[in-house]
Amino acid sequence: EDALAPWRNRKSSETSLKISAGSNSGGAGEEKSSKNKSGGGSSLSAPAYFLDETNRLPPLPDFSKGFQCGHISSLIRFGLEFITRNGQTTYKAPIPPTSDINELEYISALHQCGSMAEIRQDCSIRSNEIATFLKSRHGLCVAPEVVRKFILQDGLTADKDDEDAAPDSDGSDGAGGVMDLVELTSALIIPNLLRLRRKHMDKTQLSGATSSPSVPNATSDKVLPLLDNTAMLKDILALMLEDCTGDATPKPLDEELVRDLLNGYGEGALAQDHQLVREMVEVAKVGSSPSMEVQVGNEEKPVATFLDLSAFVEALTSDVARKYDPGRENRRSTNFDDVWFHSTEEEKQVGGRTFARASTTEFRNEDEEANGVNSYITKLNEDTLKDTVDICNKMKKKKKKDDDNIEDISPQDMMSPRSATATAYKNIQLTVRRIFTGQAVDYTVDNFRTRFQVVFVWMAFAVFYVGYLFGTGGESFEVEQCQKTDIASDIVCPLIVGIVSQILMIGELIIFGTPFIVMGSIGNTIEGQETITRMLLTMAMFLAYNVIFFSLTFRVPYWIEAPSAKTMVHKIGFCLSLFLTAQHLFHTAMLILKKHRSKLPSLLDTRFFKWYFLSGNVLYETKIKQSALFKVDQMLNHAYDVHQEVIRDKEKRRTSTADSSALSNFGQATNAFSKRDGLTVYVGGTSWAWKSIRRGTLFTQEGIWLSGRLVAGSAFQICVIFAIPILFSYMIPVIIEQIRIQAGLDKATDTTAADKRAKIAFGIGTACAFLVAINSTILYIPSVVTTTMKFRRGVIPTLRSEDFLHRYRFALDQTTLLFGGMFWGLMISSIAIGLLVAAFFYTLLWQESQRFMFRILGNLLGLSIVLIVKIIIMQIIRFSHYKAFYRTKPLSANIINISMECYAIGISIWFMLVRTIKIVVVSALYLGRTDTPLFSPGVGIFGPLEIDNWPTVTRKEILIHEAHRHPYIETLGYLYMMQLRYRDDGFAKRACSAWRLIFVLALMPWLHKFRDYARPDHFAGEKQRRKQSLDGAGGCVVVSKLKVDDVVLAELKSIHRDSMVSPRWQTTNEAVTSDGPGAKRFMRESMLSPRWQGNTMSTHKPMSEDPKKRADFLRSEIERLQKELTSIEDLADV
């Protein structure tokens, strides 16, 4: 509770996380936000956390004033939440910032693909893995060496890797192409730092901020309530200076100060890089303040530059500020468009064409988008420019002759992977090439434009299959072959028919289904790559494909049949194909209008045109961009809350008489984090998931990507809900007829009672099947969302999990089973429950079995009465005879236990019978829940064989989309492409990346261990600094020459050298101030006992300010030291 208090009960400008005792039935996802009382912007929208089991449920109605009609809805709400609260939708998760670390580890585990045999525990990402991601997500073919040179080195990483580093066994660049988790985090925060930069520039009116008012915020507070408080940067800078220099006052910005900061945070290797240090000073000086003065001796001399807030902001963001588009989070566009088609500066023309939008101040905000699409749509897809992006026209500049040859190659020839020109281009080492990925049928990344067409295509194919393919294979083979040959026996013939049926069915689906889906999906690419010729040709082929089956009459034995008499199914299927053809024709018309946009400017300004091209997954990806900004902002504020707690504790200590601080700010923040680590809260909920979907916060804040397969499967599940009553209405007469036949009744016999029993039983069964279908459909998407959140928050382990390594990352083609599994699973589950319930009620109503059923019910009723009485008695005994695991009355407790064991012998048989019934019912209920494991972890797994692998299939579907669509990974992909696009003059620079690295280490010191694991040599240079500290650099650290034991002296030295304060600042602080706060602070934050501090620190002064008390203290210290000296001398003589 003490650890939860700082972040639960925030005030003023801090985020408000309100703990509700049941006001939100869904659980932890209910968003709450409040205005910033201090006027510093709006606070973050954050979930409400429930700390115990009871608070997860809505409150029961108050019946003290009588029953009211409103109580009915409250009872229904309570019942639904009570039933679904344990349906894998509500769970315990770690509190921040532990959950933030788990999500970063999760991102690293997803990104790692260099080896299928292991996952690196240091969370590092290598160049070959980045190249694989770019190819899978965006279709960009780039060599690992290019990634190493243009993305990592002198880019997103600060470490200068060895150019001659040997490749690893897995084909990666080894140490030459590695990005550790701290560097990954420092890259993720770039958009948020730029937002704070714009806020700071608006406040301070810097000289370089004159154009900032014309640039809108990336995401307005109306869309996402983000915290625009630059106080975080100011506080972290003060903590950095205090840790590394002794106090928080701004220091002269020079190379020595930068080295002190790097050395203070353990970056000795970077501190030894003189070029990097010099560049870090230069980038920070642009925003530094020149009007400050410093005391040097007895004179005050002006210093040109100081490391203040402005210089710190410039150091963190100056490299990316000029090229980053601040309007991308609010603009309806993909990340690929943001990089290659929306520019913040003029782009040169290649082959006579402009490949990027030339604009320095024009960024479209939400209001501009509402007025139309005009020039934005004209740049969305101009003559398939996606295949001729600017980077594809640039080469590694080795010779001038090669550059001349580039101008002679057209962009279209260059991007064709099959052309001879492309082969020649490879010979001159093409840097990046984009390949065709078939976006319209890309269900792994969901690169199609709209889910509506996907669902409609699959529905049309389902009807096509039922009309022309279903029942024409094995059945016809059985009729024509098994009765004509001699081998048609009771054993051989069924085996042959079963084998042939499956082969024919699979062959039909693959041969006839693949062209149907591919041609039906034409025009559904997210980037609109289709040409008009391609659209017309494919549309004609698709129409002919369906017309042939509908208009002609033919039959292929055992294969396919188009009957002359068309049924309703055939007519519905043909109408659906005509609708798809009309959709293709409409898309072609839209492409023609876009091609002639200059002649129809008024038409292009309509909202409908914008809606058609920029809705669907383009809008969805825009929400994911917004969620990335929100989630990183949350992560920064969670870390900042820890430091605020440290700052508050320091303020309390300053007001108290005793100064008990024993750690640096770095250490105190780590200690505060350790207090929160391990605490959990209840989060999630079914109603929360659906409310988040309805409000859009599931996408704009959590960044959950619901895959196309999941959406299509859910649409088919809705169809199953309505199909269940229809199916049972057809089944009931057939079942009644079978019952009549089995009972030996004819039509003349009075069967009214039997028919009535069957109708009642199957009517109840139909209702139960209908409710089961609704329940499974409602719970499926919340369950998938919950599983995704469990992966992100570390509830389901990934980085250190054997299941993740060996089970989830293999056989990803199994995700294609999910669509059919969702449909047939729900269908079979609903029918099974309906039949079980119907059979129970039929046997209950049937006279022949009625007596037996009522006897069983009577036994169960008697068992219930016995259990109720037993529970009441045992509750009294438990409280009076037991205290946890211990007995307070051993004798009577033993006698009672013997009695209960005798009782259990007779009653356990009924328990096992009830358990059997429960397992059968639960199994039938969970047949359609492919998202939820039916067995406990480890049950049903025999080596590589998993009996129930459907939950694994669902998790693979989640993970494969998370690996491409997680907000953090989408941001990384954007930054990778920005590095490739601006590789000539650079996007992110090494010097600013080093500043961001220090900032992340200061803000999140708990990430320091990951950098130690990934780069164990980044401490290089520490030995020299520590040696200077031990030798008494600046006269601050002086080890007394007592005759102490060598082990004790070595321990003293090891403790002294771990101080983050540079020796030169320890001396300076004592020279400037009268009481020597530098030495005091140095000794106060060490782990040495005060008696050893007195021995080893010659400049250390007593804490008391009273001269008399100082004199008494010195006398006592002299006496103590004299006694110690005498004892040591005696020991030496012995």
A few lines on this structure:
The protein is mainly α.
Structural class: mainly alpha
Helix content: 55-70%
Gyration radius, rounded: 36 Å
Beta strand %: under 5%
The 3D shape can be described as: globular
Intertermini distance: 56 Å
Helix segment tally: 45
User: Average pLDDT, to the nearest integer?
Assistant: 74
How many beta-strand runs? 18
Low-confidence stretches: 1-55, 206-225, 345-430, 1022-1058, 1069-1103
Note the main sheet: 2 strands, antiparallel
Major β-sheet strand ordering: 1-2
Question: How would you sum up this structure, described in words?
Answer:
This protein is mainly alpha-helical and 1134 residues long. It is built from 45 helices and 18 strands. The strands form 9 sheets. The chain has a two-stranded antiparallel sheet. Strand 15 and strand 16 (886-887) form a beta hairpin. Helix 11 packs across helix 38 (990-1003), helix 19 runs antiparallel to helix 21 (492-520) and helix 30 (708-743) runs parallel beside helix 33 (817-845). Mean pLDDT is 74; it is low at 1-55, 206-225, 345-430, 1022-1058 and 1069-1103.
